[in-house]
Amino acid sequence: TTREEFIGMYGDCEDMDSADFDFVSKVEPFQRALAECNKEILITGRRMDQAAQRITLDVWEEGKSTLNPMANFSWEDIIAYVDAEGVPVNKGHNFAYRCNAPIEATKRHLPDLPWTKVDLGKPFWQATPEELSGNPPAPVTYVFKSFGDIHTTVPVEPHESERAGRFVRQAKTECGIHTRTTSAGAPHGGALQNLLVKDAAEAKKLVDSCVKTINLNERQACDVFCLVNGAFSPLNGFMEEKAYNSVVKDMRLPEKQLFGLPVTLDVASTEGLKEGDKILLKWDGEDVAVLEASS
Fold first, then answer.
1. Residue in 68, 69, 67, 65 with CA at minimum distance from that of residue 40
2. If you count Cβ atoms within 10 Å of the first and of the last residue's Cβ in the chain, which end, N or C, has fewer?
């Protein structure tokens, strides 16, 4: 499908809801391809250091029959292997974008920007700082460390995370292939969030670290039990402001999984609490969970 054909069928990507764009351009074709291939195991190149949704990533995901062989690799591991083994790479890695002043990430997708595009003749990580910045040296140089949709992918400074240039102008950090593609009977979001602390010593340590106690009512306790046991997957805690606003506005989490209602803990007062404080949640006289204040 050409870009013109896509626009004729669905509209311009800039005008589409990002969840709809991801579904028609990635999620649905990906699901269809898996069905046509009758796959048994999916192998990916995902890594834990790439995005918020990948802070914890198993090499083998049993529920998805997915193998992530590079889950524990870093960016440095990747480029070292590429150079050592002569792995072909995207030619877009060869370009440096030199400019006299920083350009906001949210504007780097626009045409006719005040930078000079230079072909380094090799991947940017093989270039010296002098080769990257030129002579005389440019005050700012950008490179493409990762590639995605043209309207949400921008070059970044060489020291920045490769994902800093992905999903620019959007709240999400994933396209949906790994967060919205699930098999029949799989947990919502693809992975069951089991928050139970089974080690008694660890549980006691958490309780002892609490600076405040909240006695839950029955409705609040129900939400806590659903979170702890994974019934609200992919949530791994009460919603923070970004997730709350996304669900209220669009009935979707920031990563665009459907979620009909916000899940929050209403409290009478947060006086005296600061980010990182731990709060003991009790119901019917029993310790049920420890909550960490995040915002």
1. 65
2. C
Strand partners, 140: 99
Decide: residue 253, CB within 10 A, 0-12 exposed, 13-18 middle, 19+ buried: buried
> Is 20 in contact with 172 (CB distance < 8 Å)?
no
- Taking alpha carbons only, the member of 256, 149, 181, 180 closest to residue 31 is 181
pLDDT (tens digit, 9 = 90+) per residue, 52-97? Answer: 554 678 899 876 778 999 999 999 999 999 999 999 999 999 999 9
The Cα–Cα gap between 134 and 46 comes to 33
Please give the Cα distance from 138 to 157 (Å, whole number): 12
pTM of the model: 0.64
For the stretch 239-256, pLDDT in tens is: 999 899 999 998 988 877
